[in-house]
């Protein structure tokens, strides 16, 4: 095939040389990713980050392609070129099961985008499966097994998911570019120069350790400063409350939802198929929410309107030990006239920026190995003081959300609001 | 008001110091721009350019704010600070009437986004109008008159629309950043240093002429290389044919469209209101197109599917004199089984990169004036050889579009396709 | 004065609005900084970093100018505008006493660039002093006192030197740009938005803490990865040995040095004046070294040639406890024919990335204060987990340097070299 | 050889895989380029552009290496891999004969950096020649013939010098980065994707024509806005007058110059050798000029001081027809006390941004060929309207320089200066 290229702000160009890759990009399941934002709630805070999963998936593929190119050229003795296409395909498709507002949606409807990724790859009814089967009858299963970590060759698995994989490398650079929060930048070129296939996985040459270190720190900063931003989490919580209200209301008013949001019905009834899932995207969901703004249920219509028109909840942090005491805040919210079941909520975000391999854990991490001059391996945090300083610990906060109206002062409820505000200091909840 | 800021990839931060501006941003009419892409068909070619009108409008406002800040500080004798808020508001709202896929939509439904902009500003039913009226009863009309060029102070009008206005400056930088086509970059900082209010408009100091020159060249290159890209225009044409088919079919099958695309009905019936217009956005339109993919009408469902799944038409350029001869190509297309009324089309794109003021023209341009050391003005192209070289001329091409299938060779229609292809050379139509 | 601007890659433009600043830039003492590299030995490793002290000093001034502009506009109640010019002048001149290869030079000749800075400012024989006296007779002394930290207003002093001052902010951004080691980038715009004058110094608003955090991390990474680069330190060590040899040789062969390096004589004799110091710059020093390449002393000529032609020493790290054992390596170096007094050396580099204020220390740090919503201050590391993780600790290493020839194998001394190499593993010295 | 890399701001990394290349970089003749600025007089105007010929030469090599890599991989049928090393070496060495302030120096001393480049490559006394001879006895001559355009394979020659060669591509990007004049940026990645070896030279695929177009425009803008900047040319002219004075004065006072500027003597006497030429660099020349500041000749010492301390001459443009009339200005300059032979001068700068091949010309250009889909070639300006608009024409201006003092007003010579100024308007000389 003649090489095709896609102009890309992160990698300059995405290069496609395999017909399989090109055909996969052109399937309806993959093109659908154009209609799903990469960070949909973050975009309400960082307006620039309106990019889609489509762009991200191309980017992950491109990083994988570059890694493979280096492995094939310089490490033929230890890298099996027969695995190359598999890596590129798995990179391209690793997120193909992502849906509209996935994280919130999954919580409410007990779905799982990773299971959908598996299904899209292995179900004979998809265009993607048809193309993969043309490579080899067992190729779809192979791709699926790479994505769910069961593929035997750890070199392949770790390129797609580990503490420093193609997925994370692309999203840090991309989200950084689009949000304009430059913290996520790191030296990808250098990492590509020092990445090495080793016997049972992936390592990085010692002379590039600083680039790996910088990647860990960048990732940490993106979590603290972008992904955990209080306003974005407010929008997540609002969406959660909106879907919860709709799900409950459906029992009473099914016909309203049949009219206004047909493709959500199977989810309300817990009888959804793959086709139902694929029918949903950001635009479809927002179209439904816009219909709900005209519902006769005041809570549904108000929450929908707040979401569509970006009326963010406000929040304060609180200490874990004080969680029970938050009831006092909920009480004031209710007194002002907001049902606290829908108008307040707790959002907890914690991240473990890096950890060594701990076999006793439920999901042990694959630690990052540094390849030294004499051929021995050393785990990253034994060499890097800065990684050591942040590894093994989680960082984040607990937030209590409530309507912005609780912070205004000029109305009938001024006294109640004052009492409410008396519990807050420097945006933190004072428990006593 | 405490200053609010929005992180922005182009201007680093958007600064908001006026409550009026902040309230306008928070209206439902303005938040709606988040759901409308800035360059929706371009995004099918340059996948990175998924940014919205919302981002662009904030950017235009920010440039205006910076210009005004300089005028207020350094040119008080000639700049009236009472006009400052007006400029910022007009900059923010100049595009507020843009709708989903505006350019194509307007052609089909004889609507006009500029008229909608006027209406959103002046109609008492909008949130925007309510806020503007709080400034002064005649403020909405003033804002509207700036945008439609009838406001008497030309300084104000030219900042919002002229050959080098805040709108163009933002979209060149922004589209350039998001498409990754760096041609659109120019030195905004320098231009801000040399922009000057003059008696009857806006000028640029002589020592910054090269930055203005570079802006003109950048704009020219963005048109040639990004906005006029054949693949994006293919998607525009496809959309046009899809909407045309829907409009015709509505006469026969109204109930299908009542179900599948309720908010388009008023447009089919030519009885739309402002509320109808505001109900449409990219997500709503795409949701409709996705429904149409299940229509019983094969042309409608196929065109919808081609649009949603990005199956671009191919094209060749042709000379104006050969337009009549294109019938031969349409004939072959029909023989292969595609109705040429829907599966072929002509797309003509021409741009006049810069022109002097020509009062005899229907829409004369406001030429760019350079302010010389002795206080006299000189029109840009008299000083700049490169602007002179491209001014007054239009650049662009005429393209004939057809299904990609006409270029394949391996089927029943191989002979017809070969005859078709015999008329093409180096992607150009050979008339004879 | 009409504003003058200097195009600058870091700040886009340097703006000069005060005649005093413009005149200072045009003095011979300040123009001399064009001939002194900012990071002369680093440039041997990162070839891009060939920028001068001149560029850096303009940059420090520009940051100071921007800070002052914000203070004057928004914090008039607490910032005294009479201090503004003082801050800008101190920022511009804080490094004016830097000389050629300062750090190494000072060690050898017991000079001190900070004392020269004071002298250039206060000595009546300089052009700089003449200009400063025109502002006010005591102005030179005021400027000098800001730079040596004795000026009573801590707001002024901390802008010029503290753990986050205009000097450091410029050099991190600038050295990062020129070396292409992007680690040094941080969000200056954000820091400028949240910097605040407080009663007794400078603080940063809570909502910008992440930018301050990122600055600390960036600075840390630049030290670890750029400033402490082993190859640059090799060049420093080589220069040190070269100057040591010259100084010793001068006693024996004064006439050679009178001919080849006249402006160094006063330093050899310890009778240098300010004029002697100002006569030296990188070009003059290199011209001397080039002359020394023709010396009859083989050590002098060889070391000069190695320096001029960038023949870097190699190095290994070693543990503090093993320092005495390095003698074994020196012995092998001597056996191969290199005098270890000149051809080996130890270079120790440690940095304390951040620390709280510790009054018991010899040079206590001014800790970074974060201004909270309720007006209270909190020390940075109490709020930032990542700063806490690295604060109060020093990072760096000890290196033993030796001629690259010790690592080759193909000659007469192969056995000695093998014995030498047997003490090294993974670029570390094995003591036992 | 293990790959070596150099961190580079333009190309991210310079990759060296051939021992020959690495050894050439480490020669004293090549390392000497670290001490020669790429744009020495431009750095007086754009202070950021302090980069050296060393950096540029590495960059030209890196572009060549990338081109060759593509040719070897994709165009084996038409590209002979035996030529690859030759291209890389010629790219690396094409400027190795550049000396301190070459352009001005050559004019005064009738030397020629291109001839020195040839000599450094072919003279058996250089380290470079020794390394080249190890490749093959005739390799030095081959390299030299590529650089002087006589090598028979035009593919090789055009990569090194043509209207779009590796040299120009690097210096535009590099000078643009360091000056911060972004006009010089163009899409190198795209150009590398479309560059093709053809039978008798180099061409560019049709689908990358816009990148070539943008390169031509960028180059044009860099000439107009950076290289032809009046202040930089003022410094060139000043240097020229300084050297002229020195050369004349040498006849009278040889001993002063023997002391102060020994390595210039052979040039004054026209008996210089290659070794003499290599002994000069920016630092050596500036050291000499600093000595001349103490000359008893007032003109020499004043001009030296003006150059070292950057006292730029001012200038006005003039029309060619008025050149004779400039005598009136010189007369006034003399009346004020400046010898017009040294204190005034004419500087003419013109550039032909692009031209087709014109065999009748003394130095015909190699026109840029575009490779079309059907394999035919088309000359660039036949396809590109913007290149056509500027091709075949020269752009630039003529300037008359004089001391800045002529523009002040407040002294004894006020009347003479007024008469002088009466001949100037908008920085242009009025002839009548």
UniProtKB/TrEMBL annotation, chains A, B, C, D:
Highest taxon, organism lineage: Bacteria
InterPro entries documented for this protein: dGTPase-like, HD/PDEase_dom, HD_assoc_2, HD_domain
GO-annotated molecular function: dGTPase activity
Stored CDD domains: HDc
Alphabetical list of Gene3D superfamilies matching this protein: Hypothetical protein af1432
A single BP term in Gene Ontology: dGTP catabolic process
Keyword line: Hydrolase
All residue ranges annotated as the HD/PDEase domain in the record: 49-181
Full protein name: DNTP triphosphohydrolase, putative
Annotated organism of origin: Streptococcus hyointestinalis
Organism ancestry: Bacteria, Bacillati, Bacillota, Bacilli, Lactobacillales
């Amino acid at each position: 095939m003649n090489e095709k290229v896609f102009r890309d702000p992160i990698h300059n160009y995405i290069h496609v040389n395999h017909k399989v890759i090109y055909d996969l990009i052109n399937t309806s399941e993959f093109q659908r990713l154009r209609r799903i934002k990469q960070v949909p709630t973050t975009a309400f805070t960082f307006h620039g980050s309106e990019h889609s999963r489509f762009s991200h998936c191309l980017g992950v593929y491109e990083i994988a392609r570059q890694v493979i190119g280096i492995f094939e050229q310089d490490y033929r003795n230890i890298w099996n070129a027969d695995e190359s296409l598999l890596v590129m395909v798995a990179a391209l498709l690793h997120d193909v099961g992502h849906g509209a507002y996935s994280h919130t949606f999954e919580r409410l409807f007990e779905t799982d985008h990773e299971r959908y990724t598996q299904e899209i790859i292995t179900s004979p009814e998809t265009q993607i499966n048809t193309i993969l089967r043309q490579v080899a009858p067992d190729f779809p299963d192979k791709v699926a097994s790479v994505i769910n970590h069961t593929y035997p060759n750890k070199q392949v698995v770790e390129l797609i998911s580990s503490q420093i994989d193609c997925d994370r490398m692309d999203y840090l650079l991309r989200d950084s570019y689009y949000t304009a929060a430059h913290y996520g930048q790191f030296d990808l070129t250098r990492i590509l120069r020092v990445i090495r296939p080793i016997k049972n996985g992936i390592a990085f040459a010692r002379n590039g350790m600083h680039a790996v270190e910088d990647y860990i720190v960048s990732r940490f900063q993106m979590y603290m400063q972008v992904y955990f931003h209080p306003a974005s989490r407010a929008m997540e919580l609002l969406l959660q409350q909106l879907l919860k209200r709709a799900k409950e209301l459906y029992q009473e008013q099914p016909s309203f939802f049949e009219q206004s949001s047909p493709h959500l019905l199977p989810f309300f009834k817990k009888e959804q198929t793959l086709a139902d899932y694929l029918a949903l995207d950001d635009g479809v969901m927002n179209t439904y929410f816009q219909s709900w703004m005209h519902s006769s249920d005041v809570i549904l219509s108000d929450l929908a309107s707040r979401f569509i028109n970006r009326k963010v909840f406000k929040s304060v942090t609180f200490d874990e030990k004080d969680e029970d005491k938050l009831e006092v805040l909920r009480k004031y919210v209710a007194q002002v006239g907001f049902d606290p079941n829908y108008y307040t909520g707790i959002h907890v975000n914690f991240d473990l920026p890096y950890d060594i391999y701990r076999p006793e854990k439920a999901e042990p991490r694959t630690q990052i190995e540094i390849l030294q001059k004499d051929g021995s391996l050393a785990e990253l945090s034994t060499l890097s003081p800065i990684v050591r300083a942040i590894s093994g610990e989680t960082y984040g906060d607990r937030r209590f959300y409530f309507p912005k109206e609780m912070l205004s002062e000029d109305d009938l409820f001024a006294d109640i609001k004052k009492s409410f505000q008396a519990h807050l200091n420097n945006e933190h909840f004072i428990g006593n």
